[in-house]
Specification:
The complex is a heterodimer of chains A (about 150) and B (about 160). With about 150 residues, chain A is mainly α. Chain A contains five helices and no strands. Chain A has one domain. In chain A, helix 1 runs antiparallel to helix 3. Chain A starts with a helix and ends in a 15-residue tail after the last helix. Chain B is an alpha/beta fold and about 160 residues long. A five-stranded parallel β-sheet of chain B has the order 1-5-4-2-3. Chain B is elongated and about 70 Å long. Classes of the chains: A mainly alpha (about 150), B alpha/beta (about 160). At the A-B interface, helix 2, helix 3 and helix 4 of A face helix 1 and helix 2 of B.
Chain lengths: ~150, ~160
């Protein structure tokens, strides 16, 4: 169990830290991020604008909460939900043949594609482990507690 | 069940806090949106003083007078099927924008007109920003794009043309 606890702590710090970083780099340039969202051509100007204002803060707050161990499962729920959304968005973008930057890490973003999906899946794995574990990792082969 | 509810409630609180923080920190931007800014573009004019959004009529006048170099930011295939006569194809997507050396050789004061598909296409703006970064001082984005040009029954050229 202590080993599992350490692993959970590593997951929390890594995932929380990544989300705080992703939020911070975008929060200072909301218009640039709004353009990134607009480039996906799924929502209009106003919705892109509002998402660009709120999403970075959601990433920061959920990331800080997760890393600090406050409302761990709620923040893991938000982060996992966001990741599922990002993965779906990237798949739709690939299917539509759009060549856009993912907008994930502000100026450090790269092309939205399968590489981004793989990274998101890795983070989603951590998020789901944190979401479905109360004190430690569920034993192998058992259904995680709800 | 009550545990699930608690988690969802906490998640909603984090969501609400995010909305409040965003509204508070970015209040000046929200005010600008309410005043009607950002309806067409998120471009901050102060950052890109050389870029202007223009109507089809303005673009047509510049094109007819031969006063501007016209760039088509759409991918190669639709360009080959039809484009504004004398336009050069400079496929511009967000992740890959290459400006060829001959374009870079143009005088920086030259008027450039850029367009893409029209509707909600964004590549003309991406190309305009890229050209602006290269030092061009007069870039005009035809916001109605190819769609409006075709609808207006204006001349069309097909094939590879200049590239």
């Amino acid at each position: 169990m202590p080993k599992n606890k350490s692993l959970l702590l590593v997951f929390r710090l890594a995932l929380g830290g990544l989300f705080v970083y992703a939020g911070v780099v975008k929060v200072f340039d909301p218009l640039d991020f709004a353009q990134d969202i607009r480039n996906y051509r799924l929502v209009g100007q106003s919705l892109s604008f509002m998402a660009a204002l709120v999403l970075p803060w959601l990433e920061i707050l959920a990331g800080v909460a997760l890393a600090a161990g406050i409302w761990k499962r709620a923040s893991a729920l938000i982060i996992s939900g966001l990741l599922v959304f990002f993965i779906a968005l990237t798949l739709v973008t690939i299917a539509r043949g759009l060549d856009v930057e993912c907008g994930c890490f502000g100026a450090l973003s790269r092309k939205s594609g399968f590489g981004v999906i793989l990274e998101d899946l890795g983070m989603l794995f951590m998020g789901l482990v944190l979401l479905f574990s109360k004190k430690g990792l569920p034993p192998m082969g058992t259904v995680p507690p709800n | 069940m009550s545990e699930t509810r608690k988690i969802v409630r906490q998640a909603l609180v984090i969501g609400a806090l995010s909305v409040l923080l965003a509204a508070a920190v970015h209040f000046p931007l929200v005010k600008r949106l309410v005043r009607g800014e950002f309806r067409q573009t998120f471009l901050v004019q102060a950052d890109y003083p050389g870029i202007r959004l223009i109507t089809l009529q303005e673009a047509e006048d510049l094109w007819a007078a031969g006063e501007a170099v016209v760039f088509d930011a759409r991918p190669e295939r639709p360009f080959r099927e039809g484009h504004v006569p004398r336009a050069r194809n400079l496929p511009a997507t967000e992740s890959k924008l290459k400006v060829p050396p001959d374009v870079l050789g143009l005088p920086r004061e030259r008027t450039l007109v850029v367009y893409c598909e029209g509707g909600d296409c964004q590549s003309s703006l991406a190309l305009a920003k890229r050209l602006h970064d290269e030092g061009f001082k007069d870039i005009r984005v035809m916001t109605g794009g190819w769609e409006e040009w075709i609808k207006a029954g204006l001349p069309v050229e097909a094939g590879d043309a200049e590239k």
